Amino acid sequence: MKQEELKFAIRGTLIHAPSTGDIEVLENALLAVDDGGRIAAVTGPGQPDYGKLEQTAREAGKLEVLSAGEYLLPGLVDTHVHAPQWPQLGKALDRPLDEWLRKYTFLLEARYADAEFAERVYDNLVHTLIANGTTTAMYYATIHLESSMRLAEICLEQGQRALVGKVAMDNPEQCPDYYRDASAGQGLEDTGSFIEQVVGMPGNADRLVLPVITPRFIPACTDEMLLGLGDLAQRTGCHVQTHCSEGDWEHAYVLERYGKTDTLSLDGFGLLTPQTVLAHCDFIDDADMGVIKGAETGIAHCPLSNLYFANAVFPARKALDRGLQVGLGTDIAAGANPGILHNCQMAVTASRALEDGVNPDLSAADRGTAGARIDFREAFWMATAGGGEALGLKVGKFERGYEFDAIIVDTEMSDSNLIIWEDMDEGDDILQKIIYNADRRNIKRVWVQGEQVKS
Ligand code: GUN
Ligand code: FE
User: Fold this and answer.
1) Looking at ligand 1, which residue's alpha carbon is closest to its atom 3?
2) Which of 64, 78, 13 minimizes the C-alpha distance to 330?
3) How remote is the CA of residue 81 from the centroid of ligand 2, in Å?
4) Which domains does the chain have, with CATH numbers?
5) Which ligand is closest to the CA of 305, given by its number?
6) 29 near 43, Cβ under 8 Å?
7) Ligand 1 pocket member 194 (CB < 6 A)
8) What are phi and psi of 270, to 5 degrees?
9) How far apart (Å, rounded) are the C-alpha atoms in residues 301 and 315?
10) In 3D, which of 146, 144, 138 has the Cα closest to residue 169?
11) pLDDT at site 362
């Protein structure tokens, strides 16, 4: 590689999940980033290009050497965040979903008619997510065009890879008068304008920030809206996001309205594409899984949110075993924690509860769902490359051609719960300990597309 094409190279211990369930720990590895922010090479001692590349980087003054106790991990991918709900984090968690939406969430989201209010919240949220190591986030904004644009601009300013949607919701039977699109036509027009404005945003030529077609969920939308958005998705090839079979109430509502599941209904509207991400999918059946797989649609698994609002947890093991594209989502604020590492823990925890069952009054045989557990390896896959796959982006792995989105986890800092014992921890123990014990303070540096966004 020529010196001038090299942005920088990093030498140290790299940890990533190259495929579902596999963790690779690469010691003394050398990773080169090209001037476009992509990974140009990943190599190790003993490989033919290692010495030459290290020499090139060193001579160019572009070699960074990690200290012992620093680990380079792929940046974390959050496939489902409600940005406007950030001020509500940790509140009203004792209400069922429909009441939580009506009594708290819609009232808060309506305040984003004020773009200054939006700016104050979004600036803080994006900063916080980056500090927690989230290098890619797929966001729902609100119904408001102007403040949704503010979110897109703030992501770009702060250098976070982001997919942002202006929320579409126009069904007067399910949405309050004070918070819904004036009509299907208006919502469709605003969605179209939003897509154009995000794509044309100054500084966004490389499409670090992408627009997303965002029907909130089936109950919130009229047929006209769903049809129109499906048509827009087919015509533009834009990403799509929505909620799918999240909880008992919502799943039953859709069965009643269309006589079929969310998955089949969304497919009928043209909303299941390879660029679609369905949040939750807790109640999808085998046929739904087949349709989602066939459409190459992604799933955002939001384990913490599931445990509070969904009446069930997503069968992650089954979906991964069938080769579905699954990423993790915080689902802020139904998931009351901004960290994807925390959601890795929760994904494992939720799957263990699903496997064993939790009702002590039932016999062991009747209590759980055999074979439902995942472990930290699958959780980390979903948090990184699995999320990348679900979004159709080349992020989440240390592999040539992938974008260099990465974090350094520092295990040597004082005042931290993350302690690595050199004589007792080895191999992927370190990753498991990071997942369970790291917090934002341990996330020392963050890069997106080769640019450092936290130092
Ligand atoms: N379904 C429709 N809107 C929402 C939301 O804001 N959060 C969650 N968890 N589910 C939803
Ligand atoms: Fe959600």
Assistant:
1) 216
2) 78
3) 7
4) 3-74+396-454 (2.30.40.10), 76-391 (3.20.20.140)
5) 1
6) yes
7) no
8) 80, 20
9) 9
10) 144
11) 97
Return d(Cα 61, Cα 50) in angstroms, integer: 17
Reference 375, options 352, 355, 398; nearest CA is: 352
DSSP secondary structure letters along 296-313: T-EEEE-HHHHHHHSSS-
Interval 168-195: pLDDT, tens: 999 999 999 999 999 999 999 999 999 9
Task: Please work out whether the CB of residue 216 comes within 6 Å of at least one atom of ligand 1.
Answer: yes
**Spatial CB neighbours of 271, under 8 Å, sequence gap ≥ 6:** 213, 215, 226, 229, 230, 233, 240, 242
Sequence letter at residue 50: Y
- Split at pLDDT 50, 70, 90, the class of 3 is confident
pLDDT at 7: 98
Question: What does the pLDDT look like over 309-333, one tens digit per residue?
Answer: 998 999 999 999 999 999 999 999 9
pLDDT for 293 equals 98
Tell me, in angstroms, the distance from the centre of ligand 1 to residue 2's CA: 49
Residue 82 CB–ligand 1 contact under 6 Å: yes
Q: Which residues on neighbouring strands pair with residue 82, listed in sequence order? A: 140
Residue for token digits 């689902």? 331
pLDDT of residue 2: 86
Instruction: Give the pLDDT confidence score for residue 24 in this predicted structure.
Output: 98
